[in-house]
Write a structure and sequence with these properties.
Blueprint (H helix, E strand, L loop, with lengths): L8 H11 L5 H15 L5 H14 L4 H10 L8 E2 H10 L9 H17 L4 E3 L4 E3 L2 H10 L6 E3 L20 E3 L21 E3 L16
Parallel strand pairs: 4-5, 5-6
Antiparallel strand pairs: 1-3, 2-3
Protein name: Disease resistance protein RFL1
Family: Belongs to the disease resistance NB-LRR family.
Keywords: ATP-binding, Leucine-rich repeat, Nucleotide-binding, Plant defense, Repeat
């Protein structure tokens, strides 16, 4: 396993997390073969780590875990994501199962984050109050969301205006423009994104007004 992961700590930890709980030799051999196939042809460090991280993601059996994990990539790189805020977003985005009460929904959210932490795909900090993604793991998530689901993440890039209309493709599911310097949205800007369910504009402190046509 160390050889397959090129001795890289992140790759070792993440692949080990994805295989935790395996007790049968057949499972280990099957997982090893699957990992070999995912790494085939990758020689340099960056490309070599990516398929190992994708492998760990693909081993998440519950679709809810995958969806909630990918949602975390909408936040800034190295950003301390408040755990309660993140779970509240999971709830509002309907990424989890419906529960009988708000408390039960938060319990489900904490359980999902705990499973992602156990799989070494997220980290918990500050007495479990915040969640953080390693930058390479976030890069892996953003690579996945270039296709399906389709995200556009331009967070923390010091943008001063909203992206050109041609960037807003019809297949977009989620967009994050948080922590930029966007100060104005033109009244004639109206992206045609029928699948868009999330638009994050937080921390654009100069932005005071969003025209209604933007959401048409």
């Amino acid at each position: 396993m160390t050889k397959r992961c090129s001795g890289l700590p992140l790759a070792l930890v993440t692949s080990a997390g994805s295989m935790s709980g395996m007790a049968d030799i057949h499972e280990w051999r099957d997982a090893s073969e699957e990992l070999d196939e995912s790494c085939m042809g990758q020689v340099d460090m960056e490309n070599g780590v990516l398929p190992i991280l994708v492998y760990a993601f693909n081993r998440l059996k519950d679709p809810k875990l995958k969806t909630c994990f990918l949602f975390c990539s909408l936040y800034l790189e190295d950003y301390d994501i408040p755990r309660d805020e993140l779970i509240a977003n999971f709830i509002s985005e309907e990424l989890m199962d419906t529960r009988s009460s708000r408390r039960a929904e938060f319990d489900q959210g904490h359980a999902i984050l705990n499973k992602l932490e156990k799989a070494c795909l997220v980290e918990t900090w500050t007495d479990r109050e915040v969640v953080r993604m390693h930058d390479l793991i976030r890069d892996m998530a953003l690579t996945i969301t270039k296709h399906n689901p389709r995200y556009m993440v331009k967070a923390g890039l010091e943008l001063t205006e909203i992206l050109k209309i041609q960037n807003w493709t019809k297949d977009l599911d989620k967009v994050s423009l948080m922590d930029n310097s966007i100060h104005d949205i033109s009244p004639d800007t109206s992206p045609k994104c029928p699948r868009l369910s999330s638009l994050i504009l937080s921390k654009n402190y100069l932005l005071k007004f969003i025209p209604e046509c933007f959401f048409e």
